[in-house]
Amino acid sequence: MSDGAKLLEIDGVKSGVLQSVAGGSGFADVIEQPGNKQAGPLQWEDLKLQLGLPLADPVATWVQAAWARQGPPSRNLTVITVDLATQNAIGRRDFPNAIITETTVPTMNTAAKDLGKLMLRIVPQSSRPTKMTGRVELPLSPRGWLVSSFRLDLPGLDCTKVRQIDSFTIVQPVGRPVGDPVAAPAPVGPVRFPNLTITLPESAAATWQAWFDGSVGSGKSDEKTGTLALLDAAAQEFARIGLFNAGIFRVAPATWNAGAVAPPSVVAGLYCERMDFTFG
Question: Distance between CA atoms of 75 and 64, rounded to whole angstroms?
Fold first, then answer.
């Protein structure tokens, strides 16, 4: 059997080849009563898509709007299965009125050799498999992004020695209609932006400790606005995550074990009131 590929379309526009796809099917909870079991109302699993970076424009624009709550939040998605040997479509599944409920950014580490992938968790209105035949031209995949290629910038801090930024997830709570095939999901409440966990050498942590002492230690708020840039192979920025009203709430030695090769590290915890996503 030949290998297959999964092509993503957003509102009918080709939007890249997916790295993985999971979920998105219909299901029902089993309602159990004494002496009786039955299926409950129709529901839909979350759809989980993993995409390589840089993102195709339709995906990047959608993520950007989702973080900012700008414009219509829903999109019509199609996942097309393509036989790589023949370049023919062998099936498709439509997900109308889909909303991003989670965006997970991978862990970045200066010593890692992995390619970074963005994970989107999506709430669809429904899921419909349909027949599809004919040749499908797959878009060229961009050269992948290495998770070691990033740049953090926060005013007044030495960020040049940052070793790692742990994976983090932006969450948009979404209301999920149950048992109504016509009702579409909708955002409920504000977007929730996560805390950041940042690791750097103990020898480069003086400005971070001073920030902590001058804000948490003295009880005075000292928030900063900065950026987290994703860099291509030529060290040029292709995407940026803006960090707004970032404050520090923790500075602590990282776990250390005897015989460790790397010098001692410090872990800093930051909160962010808001983040945005830009690309290009």
Answer: 13
CA distance 142 to 41: 42
- Point out the least confidently predicted range of 119-133, 178-192, 196-210: 178-192
Q: How far apart are CA 208 and CA 248, in angstroms?
A: 8
Q: Could you report the per-residue pLDDT of 50-87, keeping only the tens digit for each?
A: 999 999 999 999 999 999 987 668 999 999 999 888 88
**Residues for the chain: how many in total?**
280
Q: Which residues 6+ apart lie within 8 Å of 34 measured at CB?
A: none
Contact 185, 61 (CB under 8 A): no
Query: In the 8-state DSSP scheme, what is residue 55?
Result: P
Backbone angles phi, psi at 254, to 5 degrees: -75, 160
List Cα–Cα distances, 162 to 149, 196, 200, in angstroms. 12, 13, 4
H/E/C letters for each residue in 86-117?
CCEEEEEEEEEEEEEEEEEECCEECCCCCECE
**Residue 50 bridge partners (DSSP):** 20, 119
Report d(CA 111, CA 149) in Å as an integer.
10
- d(CA 278, CA 280) in angstroms, rounded, equals 7
d(CA 118, CA 239): 12
- Cα within 13 Å of Cα(91), Cβ side: 7
Residue 181 CA, distance from chain mean position: 28
Mark 229-256 as b/e (b = at least 16 C-beta within 10 Å).
Answer: bbbbeeeebbbbbbbeebbbeebeebee
